[in-house]
Amino acid sequence: GTVVASRSFFDDRLIAHVNGGVQRLGDAGRAALAFAVMAEFNITERLAMLAETYDTMRSRRFYHAGLRVSIMPEHVMLNAAIGSESNFGATRQWTIGLHFVSRSLFR
Question: Using CA atoms, how far apart are residues 47 and 43, in angstroms rounded to an integer?
């Protein structure tokens, strides 16, 4: 399970997220504590810059930085980011995500 907390600053220009929980490891049912810290810097209504770090307490820390473009603000968003391990270069990751949000799900 994971617990997530978010806080908005400067009229939603900056949103900070913190989460922590337990991540199941694939080998022999072991588990590890995991945590992440993320910041969203909303540049315009449709464009945000993202920065994140996360760790599983059994591996190296990872860093990601990227952009979020709102195709339909508050409904459809596209994320793209690049990241690496804390030793910068051992493992490079590219991520792309498409998010769909429906306010009617939360009524």
Answer: 6
Residues 6-19: pLDDT tens digits? 999 999 899 999 99
Indicate the pTM of the whole model.
0.72
CB atoms within 10 A of CB 101: 13
What is the rounded CA–CA span in Å between residue 40 and residue 33? 24
Question: How many whole angstroms separate alpha carbon 82 and alpha carbon 42?
Answer: 18
Question: Which letter, b or e, does each residue of 36-70 get, where b requires 16 or more Cβ atoms within 10 Å of its Cβ?
Answer: bebebebeeeeebebebbbbbeeeeebbbebebeb
Give the separation between CA 64 and CA 95, rounded to whole angstroms. Answer: 9
